[in-house]
Amino acid sequence: AMALRCDLLRFGNLMFESAGGHMNLEGTYSAMGDSTTFPGTSQHDAYFHANDRRNARLYQHWAMTNLAYFLERLDDADYLEDDGRTVLDNTTVVIGTEYGWNHDHREAFHAVVGGVDRFRAGSHVDLNLHAADLYNAVLAGYGIDATIGSASGIASR
Question: How many CB atoms lie within 10 A of CB 57?
Answer without folding.
Answer: 15
